[in-house]
Every structure is written in structure tokens, then in C-alpha cells.
Amino acid sequence: MSDLPQSSEPRSEDAPRPRIGPLNLLIIFSKVTITGFGGVLPFAYRALVERRKLLGKAEFAECFALGQILPGPAIANFAYIVGWRDSGTLGAVAAVTGIVTLPMLLMMLVGYFYAQYADIEAVRNTITGMATVTGGLIVATALKMSTGMHRRWRSALLLLAGFAGFGLLRLPFLAMIVVLAPLAVWLAWRDAGLKVGPQTESEKGTG
Amino acid sequence: MDDWFDSPIWLFTTQVAILSFAAVGGGLAMLMPELQRFMVIEHQWLTNEEFIAAFTIGQAAPGPNFIYITLIGWRLAGFFGALLATFAVLVPPTLVVYGILRFGESRVGPRFQKAMREGLAPVSAGLMLAFGWVLCSHVDVNWRATLVTAITVAVVLRTRINPVWLVAAGALLGLTGVVL
Fold first, then answer.
1. What is the mean pLDDT of residues A39-62?
2. Interface ipTM
3. Are the C-beta atoms of A92 and B42 separated by less than 8 Å?
4. Do B37 and A170 touch (CB under 8 A)?
């Protein structure tokens, strides 16, 4: 990968950064996604921030935070934002194409073979074993998310409402989101106003 | 044309496209209970075992965690179905994101971003817990499977091991019949 911009010493955050370009975005994100076992994000951080120094730490965090609050899959949004900031529309499309293409082709391959071997006892047992671990991974992620936020009554109530509605009562996801998300954001917005004071810029959102 | 609009892949695609908008503050893995109900209970296009298997394979594979939706698309309508399902995940929300980046990234001010982040955190966590609950209620069919799930939770919370090794261990336990 000698054609990619590299620097031997760490650059300061405000130094001008060379443009990555759509082709390199496609290559970098393809590599990141196909090595991204168990979550793409740590691999993206290593490739973009630590190894190639294409993004500053703060910029990486900012892009990811924005990707997470926008609708849709967070990792695709992240790629989209990084690509957009680097090379506009073409960069955004290249980065997202990189993130999704190889895993998609892999799934097609898996789908093709799975249809032939799905009835074999050993295959079914293996997948059952993987599923029990996957259940644990999801619960662990949820617990990490639960302990990583502001500890207050309101957060606990919102969390409980989400869990009870979606998990125990099995209410539709859309209904849960449409009721809980605007309520939660509005409450946090009011709080932020109390701390920061009124802001003059127009702050229309997408919520 | 009527047949097309009644076809499983079309109904699945539109369902995914709508839900993809709603998956704020988390991931599309979180939609699994909703899609399970849609696919398995409402329409019976897949058995529960097939659906859980598709989800598990998608989670174990490298790449974004919504890729199980591609695999379900493949199960419904082959190559075309996989392509369509992937586009359904990516394109609709991307149009919104594009609009924001193009016309108003600066207008989504810091206060609103902060409110979104902090407000959505407990909601996402609650939905994620619910998702874990529903998934475990399907996979933990006996005490050995429950124990494996519980050990996984403990290991992930206590160590920094890459989850892919845990999934590999789970595959081995399944193959040797320990969790059956």
C-alpha cells in the first residue's frame, strides 16, 4: 500500500491532511470491513487513525457520533461522512460501497452453500452453538450500553420502558421508537439548554 | 405486477427500508425481533430455526452487523433478493444523511447533537436489552446453553478478547453436542 499517503511521524490535529480520494476510500473501507470480525469499528480506528493517520482521533470520534445519531446503520453512516468530508458525493459512495460490497458477496456465497448443507445435523448443531454465544454477545453489549450513560432516574425509566415494551410486551419497534425517541431527545434537549443557555443558531433536526 | 407487490422479497424489502430509518442510536441488529416476528410468525416465510441461523451467520461473518439482512434477502429471492435487501438497508437513510451533510451539517447544532446522543442512549440500551432477551429466549433452550450464554456475557464484560474467538468456541460446543 505504498501509494497511500503515509507519514512516519504523528501529525498535529490542525495540520492540513492529504486528500484520501475515492479509490483509496474504496480500498481502505473494503479492507477494514472484511477484516472486521466482531465489529468493524475497532478495525476502522486502527486503519484510519493509528496506522495511516488519515483522521485525527477527535475527528474519528466526531464522525462516528454523528453517524450514530443519524438514521440508518451507524457504521455505514460513518463511512459515508468520512467519504463525504474527504471527496464529496463520490467519496461517500465509494466508502459505503467499500463497507458493504465484500460482506454482501460473502453472504451470497454463504447463502448458496447454506441451502445445500442446511439439513446436515453437524451444520445445524454448529450454528446452534454459535447462536448461544451470539445471544451472550448481544446481552453484554446491551449491559455495556446501560452502564455507560448518565445515571439518573429518567434514564433508568426510559431504559425500562424500552426493555418492557419491546422485549416483554413485544410492541412494534416503530411504535416504540416513535414514542420514546422524541420524548427522550426533548428531555435531554431541555437539559442541555439549562446548562448551555439559549443558542441563537437555528437547530432544526431530523428527530 | 400485482404478484410482484405481494411477493415476499418486495414486502421484506419495504419493511426493511422503513425500519432502517427508525434504527437510530443503535444498529440494525436491534431490528432482529421485529423482523423475526414479520418473517416467522406473521408470514411464515422461514422457520424460526432458519431465521435464527441466518441471523447468527450474519453476526459471525466479517462486516457490518446488518449483513444478516442480506442473507435473509438471499433466502427469499437469491442474488436479486440479497441485492435488494442490502439496498433497502442502505439507501433510504442515506438520502436523509445526504440531505443533512449537503445542506445543514452546521445547522444540526451542538446542543441538538448532544440531546440526540444523551437522549437516545437509554432508549437504545433498553431496546438492545430487549433484543438480547428475545434472542436468548430462542437460543437458550436448556441449562447448558444458558450457561454458555452467561459465560459469554461475563467474558465480554471482564476481558478484551475479540468476540470472534467466543463465537468459534460456541461453534465447537455446538458441533460436539454440548449445548444441544
1. 86
2. 0.92
3. no
4. yes
